Amino acid sequence: MTESDPVKQTVIAVDDNAYTLRIVQHTLSQAGYQVFTALSGEEAVKIIDERGLPHLAVVDLHMPSGMSGFEFCRTVHQYSDMPVIMLTAVNEENTVLEGLEKHAEDYMVKPFSPGELVARVGRVLQRIGYFEYALQPTVIVDERLEIDFPERNAIIEGEPTLLTPTETKLLYILMRNAGHIVTTEYILRRLWPDEPAFEDRLHVHLHRLRRKIEDNDDTTRPRYIVSERGSGYVFYPPK
User: The whole model's pTM is what?
Assistant: First the structure.
């Protein structure tokens, strides 16, 4: 991937109101995003399974036909750290706080300004980091390694190796920032937002992940996930 051939950033919009979906799709498409739409959380999960993870989701809260917006977030965040903007008519303080503290990067209340939506999407993507591998059912890292995030599989030379939810989410966070240092503090906060977590806990999961995906038994000489002493970790993309 070169700077002259960038990956188009993708958004999935999830709302049981077809009119709202049309507005969101038109607004974000005009702003240069590739937009997929789903009328339910279940449909959105199916699209992600078939097409791969988008860069961001814009999600309604109450969808009476099936899973709620929060349930959709919990499902996807079992294996990724995909950023979410809640877009809903619910403006109760407790609900807003739950959304921001547990599920989403931002929270917008309907009716909404299309221009504000574009600005918030851009701000979240800029803050969270650019994931150039997004929207592929199986993410090809190099000729040896592929990752299927929804199925939590690392496919090594054609053979799948099951990853735990924490290992999968950790790998997603590092791959989203491929080539850049991700601080230990940031990783801890994203992996365990609702509970105290310490570096030793991260080391255990990182060690197990390396044993599964690295191409030699010596995890002190990793190919993909490299420790930057005193700073954090870097996922090195193929050269």
Answer: 0.87
